[in-house]
Amino acid sequence: MTTFSELENKLIDDCYTLINELAVEAGKVVKEGFFKTKNVVYKTSEFDLVTEYDRRCEEILIQGIKNLYPSHKFLAEESSTKLELSDDPTWVIDPIDGTTNYVHGIPLIAISIAFVLKKQLVIGVVYNPILEEYFKCRLGQGSHLNNNRIHCSQTETLSRSIYAHEVSLATVEWVREKNMKRVYKFASATQGLRSLGSAALTLAYVAKGCIDGYQIDDLKPWDVAAGALLIREAGGMIYKTDGTEFDFMNSYLVCAGTQKLCQEIINGIKETDSWSLNVG
């Protein structure tokens, strides 16, 4: 684990205060837009949506940070063109994770914000202003939901777990077969499979302990950075899908509250990925 100087720790303190203020401000905009008709733009396909509220939220967050820290770097869904991480202070932002839910009036969405120093995650915020769920964490200080400490579940087997997998990834043709095989495997091996439509919120629910395990591939850093730190600070485990060390810049992940459940998920994925399944 990276060690920080007194000056760097002061920066983390100040950034933690700042981002909690900005997240609340951005949340008001997101909540306002949830109950209104939205101007929807399709980015790369008819499944890849963005609204004016995504952009307004991102602008509030980035401009609020730049006003105090003009030299800080950003990895943000609606404005970043390069996925590069240096030792510089860097913010990783998804203004609305779960935009499709947001557009259709489903309240499973999240503002996701992480702060990275010397390439290490040190602050994470996942905020659902519709349901008033505010998850936050700092490196070494645990995870909290609405100021109450939270912990991952201690479930150790798939057969006793609620498991999350993003079924909507079937819209992406080149990963469709892989994901449908995994759905087939885990839907029948667990007490229930859940697909929330927001990776950031799902990760926060793993940290809260109401979802026991989760696996997802093919995401971006802003989808998972804050949630990954929440899970670690809540006592959980997170790995790359192949079981190696997790890297939020390469967002293929398996997470759970316990090592045993993580390993069972990883083993199950290795099994299903070897299957032959014709899904069209």
UniProtKB/TrEMBL annotation:
<comment type="similarity">
    <text>Belongs to the inositol monophosphatase superfamily.</text>
</comment>
<dbReference type="Pfam" id="PF00459">
    <property type="entry name" value="Inositol_P"/>
</dbReference>
<dbReference type="InterPro" id="IPR020583">
    <property type="entry name" value="Inositol_monoP_metal-BS"/>
</dbReference>
<dbReference type="InterPro" id="IPR000760">
    <property type="entry name" value="Inositol_monophosphatase-like"/>
</dbReference>
<feature type="binding site">
    <location>
        <position position="94"/>
    </location>
    <ligand>
        <name>Mg(2+)</name>
    </ligand>
</feature>
<feature type="binding site">
    <location>
        <position position="97"/>
    </location>
    <ligand>
        <name>Mg(2+)</name>
    </ligand>
</feature>
<feature type="binding site">
    <location>
        <position position="96"/>
    </location>
    <ligand>
        <name>Mg(2+)</name>
    </ligand>
</feature>
<dbReference type="InterPro" id="IPR020552">
    <property type="entry name" value="Inositol_monoPase_Li-sen"/>
</dbReference>
<keyword id="KW-0378">Hydrolase</keyword>
<dbReference type="InterPro" id="IPR033942">
    <property type="entry name" value="IMPase"/>
</dbReference>
<dbReference type="GO" id="GO:0046872">
    <property type="term" value="F:metal ion binding"/>
</dbReference>
<keyword id="KW-0479">Metal-binding</keyword>
<feature type="binding site">
    <location>
        <position position="223"/>
    </location>
    <ligand>
        <name>Mg(2+)</name>
    </ligand>
</feature>
<dbReference type="GO" id="GO:0046854">
    <property type="term" value="P:phosphatidylinositol phosphate biosynthetic process"/>
</dbReference>
<dbReference type="InterPro" id="IPR020550">
    <property type="entry name" value="Inositol_monophosphatase_CS"/>
</dbReference>
<dbReference type="GO" id="GO:0008934">
    <property type="term" value="F:inositol monophosphate 1-phosphatase activity"/>
</dbReference>
<comment type="pathway">
    <text>Polyol metabolism; myo-inositol biosynthesis; myo-inositol from D-glucose 6-phosphate: step 2/2.</text>
</comment>
<dbReference type="GO" id="GO:0006020">
    <property type="term" value="P:inositol metabolic process"/>
</dbReference>
<protein>
    <recommendedName>
        <fullName>Inositol-1-monophosphatase</fullName>
        <ecNumber>3.1.3.25</ecNumber>
    </recommendedName>
</protein>
<keyword id="KW-0460">Magnesium</keyword>
<dbReference type="GO" id="GO:0007165">
    <property type="term" value="P:signal transduction"/>
</dbReference>
<feature type="binding site">
    <location>
        <position position="77"/>
    </location>
    <ligand>
        <name>Mg(2+)</name>
    </ligand>
</feature>
